[in-house]
From TrEMBL:
This is Aminoglycoside 3'-phosphotransferase. Keywords: Antibiotic resistance, ATP-binding, Kinase, Magnesium, Metal-binding, Nucleotide-binding, Transferase. PANTHER family: 3'-PHOSPHOTRANSFERASE, PUTATIVE-RELATED, AMINOGLYCOSIDE PHOSPHOTRANSFERASE-RELATED-RELATED. InterPro entries: AGP_Transferase, Aminoglycoside_PTrfase, Kan/Strep_kinase, Kinase-like_dom_sf.
Length: 255
């Protein structure tokens, strides 16, 4: 996933306005106006649906072994009582595709042009938002794992075998319920410049907090340019741990 040019990375995931609307998405949207807003590396597209009932988001894409919208729906429903995440309206699947419809959460993605232009504010919001998520979600009650063995098993299902150097993680610093994909686009930022929620929680689960921090820090370079990693860690409220940052960034890139 690593990219050195933030603009290239950003544009690669914004689908063209003329993106075809699948029949299933059109049926789920009803009479609402549809706008494609995000495309992932697996070919899934998220559409914004605007209608009399407000704003909804419809995520639609191929079934795959890496992520599951059914799993994401379960995780968002679990997390919703503790932290601001999208409210699940419906979800489903057929033999080849799956879909997830959620209510809008206030705020704009941290890679919205507004926030790309203010990286100092945005990076702080991402770091503080991640700390807020980690502090809010109860580890003891979480039924989901995102530890290294779980991630290695998921990778193996997709034919990826971890290099020997990555099979043993550093000792756990602090167990938290991790977001699982804490890249910048998945933090929402309110008009006041503070975090307002998180999206794309399909991998949420218990793991060392550095598994999330490392990815969030690395993603600042993809989106805002070099020099922001330590600022994000500082906004989270701790000092950089070079060993854990290096390990979990390498693990992310390997899986």
């Amino acid at each position: 996933m690593s990219r050195s040019e933030s603009e290239t990375w950003q544009q690669a995931f914004v689908p063209p306005a003329a993106t075809p609307v699948p029949a299933r998405v059109r049926a789920l949207a009803g009479d609402a106006e549809l706008e494609p807003v995000w495309e992932n590396e697996l070919g899934g597209v998220t559409f914004r649906a605007r209608g009399d009932g407000g704003i909804r988001y419809i995520k639609y894409g191929p079934r795959n072994a890496e992520t599951s919208m059914v799993a994401e729906a379960a995780r968002m429903r679990w997390a919703a009582p503790y932290t601001p995440v999208p409210r699940v309206l419906t979800h489903g699947a057929d033999a080849t595709t799956e879909w997830l419809v959620t209510a809008a959460v206030p705020g704009r993605s941290a890679v919205d042009p507004r926030w790309l232009a203010e990286p100092d504010t945005t990076v702080r919001a991402i770091g503080r938002g991640l700390r807020g998520l980690h502090d809010a979600l109860p580890v003891e009650e979480c039924p989901f794992d995102w530890n290294v063995p779980a991630r290695a098993a998921n990778a193996a299902e997709r034919g990826i075998i971890l290099p020997a150097a990555l099979r043993e993680a550093p000792p756990v610093d602090r167990l938290v319920v991790c977001h699982g994909d804490a890249c910048a686009p998945n933090t929402l930022v309110g008009e006041d410049g503070t975090w307002s929620g998180h999206v794309d929680l399909g991998a949420l689960g218990v793991a060392d907090r550095w598994a999330d921090i490392a990815v969030a820090a690395m993603s600042t370079e993809w989106n805002y340019g070099p020099g922001w990693q330590d600022a994000l860690v500082d906004a989270y409220g701790i000092s950089p741990d070079r060993e854990r940052l290096t390990y979990y960034q390498a693990l992310w890139n390997a899986t």
